[in-house]
Amino acid sequence: MLKKILIANRGEIAIRIIRACQELGYEAVAVYSDADRMAPHVRMAHEAYRLGPPPAVDSYLRGDKIIDIARQCGADGIHPGYGFLAENADFAEAVEEAGLTWIGPPPDIIRLMGDKLAARQTMARAGVPLVPGTDQNQDLRDEELFAVAQTVGYPLLVKAAGGGGGKGIRLVRQPEELKDAIRVARREAEAAFGDGRVYLEKYIENARHVEIQLLGDLHGSIIHLGERECSIQRRHQKLVEESPSPAVDDTLREQMGRIAVTAAQAINYASAGTMEFILDQNKNFYFLEMNTRLQVEHPVTEMVTGIDIVKEMLRVASGRKLRYTQADVQQKGWAIECRILAEDPANDFMPSIGRIIGLTTPTGPGVRVDSGMYFGVEVTPYYDSMLGKLIVRGDSRGEAILRMRRALEEFRITGISTTVPLHLQLMNSARFQAGQFDVTFLERNFQFNQTPPGELAQVAAVAATIVAHRRNREAILLHQSQPSPWRLYGRREALDRRLR
Amino acid sequence: MLKKILIANRGEIAIRIIRACQELGYEAVAVYSDADRMAPHVRMAHEAYRLGPPPAVDSYLRGDKIIDIARQCGADGIHPGYGFLAENADFAEAVEEAGLTWIGPPPDIIRLMGDKLAARQTMARAGVPLVPGTDQNQDLRDEELFAVAQTVGYPLLVKAAGGGGGKGIRLVRQPEELKDAIRVARREAEAAFGDGRVYLEKYIENARHVEIQLLGDLHGSIIHLGERECSIQRRHQKLVEESPSPAVDDTLREQMGRIAVTAAQAINYASAGTMEFILDQNKNFYFLEMNTRLQVEHPVTEMVTGIDIVKEMLRVASGRKLRYTQADVQQKGWAIECRILAEDPANDFMPSIGRIIGLTTPTGPGVRVDSGMYFGVEVTPYYDSMLGKLIVRGDSRGEAILRMRRALEEFRITGISTTVPLHLQLMNSARFQAGQFDVTFLERNFQFNQTPPGELAQVAAVAATIVAHRRNREAILLHQSQPSPWRLYGRREALDRRLR
Amino acid sequence: MKYITTINDQEFTIEINQDNQVTVNGQPVEVDMHQMLDTTMHSLIINGQSYDVRMKEGTGAYVVELKGHLFEVTVADERTRRLAGIKSSFSAGGEAIIKAPMPGVVVEVPVSPGQPVEAGDVVVIFESMKMQNELKAPRTGQVHAVRVSPGDRVDQNAILVTIS
Amino acid sequence: MKYITTINDQEFTIEINQDNQVTVNGQPVEVDMHQMLDTTMHSLIINGQSYDVRMKEGTGAYVVELKGHLFEVTVADERTRRLAGIKSSFSAGGEAIIKAPMPGVVVEVPVSPGQPVEAGDVVVIFESMKMQNELKAPRTGQVHAVRVSPGDRVDQNAILVTIS
């Protein structure tokens, strides 16, 4: 039985896992870099221990230190979240060797699925349809890749073999672009995974990205929790996810789910995992990759199935049986998630840094926020740009979209640029509302409108003028000493009344 | 068709209704007293108009002014929320006479059910079981009440005829207490409803308060959305509600629901409403009163049925048919609501006032907050003490309780006393967890523990000592001028690091 | 620096040395405390345990809020403590004063000057936040003065009735 | 007091009189604005329409955030405006400077001093927030100086490469 869980992560996912621990009566142990000393995951956990300086290599990637801390504080399990060490099979093995419970799938499955070429071969053997592409499970030299490309045909994708998550992917439409694309992909793959191997895959036009959530225990039971639609992407990074998918009907869901479960059984999968598929316009689907961990977008599945995936992960890791059979799983209603990123949609998604000096978080019926943001946080360039996630559920897709729009309008983040305005415009776009989009939609067919409505300019002008006017008056009326922000505020309030 | 709704209320319920309007694409108009100029309902609405000074009689009870504003700004409907003018039949009539849509039941039903004696007679005729008590629908003089009391028997309750909601109720165990109780009840009833009439009802020992949520349209359809358990009360005011009730099984639910729907049909009820019952230990139930409005605790029903009661109210008010039949209604999982009051549980629930200078609101899976609180709000004595509601849903009652405990621990409100610590202790109490309680539980069988756990004292001592120590140092190191809170904060941060 | 820190009648000897190492009653503890942006909230990690601590300076003491509990903490350094004499304290005798617990409206004053009252008798009925509260005589005596009338709107701590 | 308020090339004449009545381009508007506790947020009700407005003073201008849109607003009273001459502005010629858009790590510098580059050529590959961004030459020219090497950790606005 687990009693005390160390969470080897930060931000919203660390908080998500702490919440699950608390609801199961487990103690939660946080670890933190110097940049995160005041972060909510540190303050919400029962215990918290410092890892090191801000860069991830010095902190959240220090597997050795994390295991030491877990042993010293008496934790009996480690949950890796996603990213950082979540798909590091060596770390998972080291955790188990230290006598701790690894809250995730067995290390050998992580290793197998982490090598995207080996994963393709394994899945093909288990009867899962593959996108045509490189078949050999070995490191091909550039010249060999040029030769394979001719059989695969154009357009094609150059993909990193060493890891997934959209890193090290390049689209190649013409043979003459291939050389450069391989160079860039190898560079990015080397940087991201320490593994420069790449492979080729046929690029399927107008395809959607649809994935199946899996959940298995250590007693051989595996179920799927339906699909997620993840086609709203930019730079191969998901931005909006939903469940169910507007492109999947009951028959297709049953078919994809059955194939995913069969393949997972073939490799003795346990814990939570996701099988990602490409879905073409004729409802053919092809294996893309398997994520052997909890995923960012797991909440949309939780919202429609009512199953708490993180709690189930913790339960099955301690040897308990799944509480659900396939027949228990029902999608009810519709859920949408918007990733709130510290990026500027008006400036080519350039990352935005700075201090959050104003924060109002939406709530109310059907709204869930999984977030690492807090009033006063300094958004640093050390970690990825995702600040949090806004998730809503409605009875229908229409209700969910309207609710998301309402919740986005309540979300007020100041001090940095975020993707909130982009999401608002997306929810208002006719093609998104109609469910007619594929993975290229956001980058090719959606125009982010940067010109604010005209009537707002006058409002902005009046507001600024009043502040300037009051500032002039204050300069005359106010004394210089300002004993405390509270007293200052009171004085300003009084002055506001006088100057009204 | 409705397009623009004026919300004649404040606080969390005004926000709840604004959210529903926004999700339906309606414009929302707020009204406010001077005490609420900066309140979120004013800032979230599309339009906002001032009513008058803080006291309710000068602002939120000014029906004439509210109707004027509605006409001038082109609103086509008025939603009264609960409290204030929600059960004022004259106001509802004036709204309709002004050509506006009243978002609630027909005024004559409000009037009928508002007179608790008339309501008893009507319900008896519709076949609803009543608690034995005064049968005449007239103003009985004290002497007549003394006589009736002998037939009713002791213990009994003295209740206000002019209104409900726990006001003007007195429990009388001995004949000699009756006179005083009538005096106090008349006084409170006169103050609350401008109607000093009281009546008597047999007091049923160890009873629960269970109510049925009703929803009807203008085309004769009425359904019920199951029951709510509201027995956790103090001073006849509900503090915690849940749905379903641990005391109600499928048979009883079907029976109570059927009787409630039949009675509502008998009076041609429309819109949302609640039939309140007393449930005794032998599963006999008796009509208590009918609330002809939206209720504070409606979210627990929304969380388990998935039906948005406020949106349905708005839809049916504009003449649309109910979107649900009785067969569509299913309770799934378990929901609990804790009312967050500005009252001090350690000091006999004495109301607490002051400024909220720190606020962290819980969120994450299964958590909903309906709240009028904001950072910097001044809690005034002008309105009722409810600041907001924390609602959670879990797969089972056990999961809901654990989740509520987790969410309560995340809720940080500073500057005033609230009921959060009481709720935390309640969630940890064995009898609450076992579902074994009745309306007297909180006041008679539950002890609020004011002694903090011993190990916390040392933590508090260390924290205060460090602050004192740093203050000494700062006095030496810091200059006097303090240009802005931000710069001050930065300097303190730097100093913290130096002094560590 | 050595401090004597008191909560109710419990005393802690807390020492913070030059290198900011902390001992409590002689036992070393590992402490890391930082102030949040709102300036009243602190994050404290003490021997690995993480706490959010809110702190307010009261009259001569800190009011510390910790996991929903309130502590009144007084901190004295050794020197101050030696210098401070025995606190003078008010004698409990004399008049009993019934004050308004918060701003509100006086609903009824069922007593008049000179009237004898017993402990527990209702002397003022007071309404605030839509609730009526009965304010009672804290001890037996005689009503000395009635400072308010029904309908009066009063501020917090306003004196309503005195009993001699 | 009369103000000329400018957003991009749109000018508003806004007058606030002694009684704080406001006109915009001669039209009276009903305005009620209050500051929130966090001091940058204001609640503005203008002709009954309710807005949350966040305001920050930039260099010589206010940055106003309104419904997710940013406006740069300059406010001048008439006197200031008359006194102010024509703004001096930098000439656009000379060196092109490639700066770090934010703190990060230099991954690769595929150019060296003296090398000719065309507009759009990648001159620095830069990583921040786990993403690699290619920084490109803004115009055709010759690499003048390379100030960084792969692996360098740089601050925001650090000069990386200059093109003459």
Helical stretch count of chain C?
A: 1
Silhouette of chain A: globular
Write out the strand line-up for the largest beta sheet of chain A, numbering strands in chain order.
Answer: 13-12-9-10-11-14-21-19
Helix content of chain A: 25-40%
Write down the secondary-structure element order of chain C. EEEEEEEEEHEEEEEEEE
Mean pLDDT of chain C: 83
Radius of gyration of chain C, in Å, reads 23 Å
Oligomer: heterotetramer
Number of helices of chain A: 17
CATH architecture of the largest domain in chain A: 2-Layer Sandwich
Structure description:
The complex is a heterotetramer, with 2 copies of chain A (500 residues) and 2 copies of chain C (164 residues). Chain A has 500 residues and is an alpha+beta fold. Chain A folds into 4 domains: 98 residues, 3-Layer(aba) Sandwich (Rossmann fold); 71 residues, ATP-grasp fold, A domain (Dna Ligase, domain 1, 2-Layer Sandwich); 237 residues, D-amino Acid Aminotransferase, Chain A, domain 1 (2-Layer Sandwich), CATH 3.30.470; 48 residues. In chain A, 38% of the residues lie in helices and 23% in strands. Chain A has 17 helices and 22 strands. The longest helix of chain A is centred in the C-terminal third of the chain and has 24 residues. Chain A is globular. With 164 residues, chain C is mainly β. In chain C, 4% of the residues lie in helices and 55% in strands. Chain C starts with a strand and ends with a strand. At the B-C interface, helix 8, strand 16, helix 13, helix 16 and helix 17 of B face strand 1, strand 2, strand 5, strand 6 and strand 7 of C.
What are the key terms here?
heterotetramer, A: 500 residues, alpha+beta, Rossmann fold, Dna Ligase, domain 1, eight-stranded antiparallel beta sheet, five-stranded parallel beta sheet, 17 helices, globular, C: mainly beta, four-stranded antiparallel beta sheet, 1 helix, 17 strands
Helix/strand layout:
The complex is a heterotetramer, with 2 copies of chain A (500 residues) and 2 copies of chain C (164 residues).
Chain A: E1 4-7, H1 11-24, E2 27-33, H2 40-44, E3 47-52, H3 63-73, E4 77-79, H4 89-97, E5 101-102, H5 107-114, H6 116-125, H7 142-152, E6 156-160, E7 170-172, H8 178-193, E8 198-202, E9 208-216, E10 222-234, E11 237-243, H9 250-266, E12 271-279, E13 285-291, H10 298-305, H11 309-317, E14 334-341, E15 343-344, E16 350-351, E17 354-355, E18 358-360, E19 367-371, E20 378-379, E21 386-394, H12 397-410, E22 412-414, H13 420-427, H14 430-434, H15 441-445, H16 454-477, H17 485-499
Parallel strand pairs in A: 1-2, 1-4, 2-3, 4-5
Antiparallel strand pairs in A: 6-7, 6-8, 9-10, 9-12, 10-11, 11-14, 12-13, 14-21, 15-16, 17-20, 18-22, 19-21
Helix pairs in contact in A: 4-5, 12-13
Chain C: E1 2-7, E2 10-16, E3 22-24, E4 27-29, E5 31-35, E6 41-46, E7 49-57, E8 62-66, E9 69-77, H1 78-83, E10 96-99, E11 104-108, E12 116-117, E13 122-128, E14 131-136, E15 141-146, E16 153-154, E17 159-163
Antiparallel strand pairs in C: 1-2, 1-9, 2-3, 3-4, 5-6, 6-7, 7-8, 8-9, 10-17, 11-13, 11-16, 12-15, 13-14, 15-17
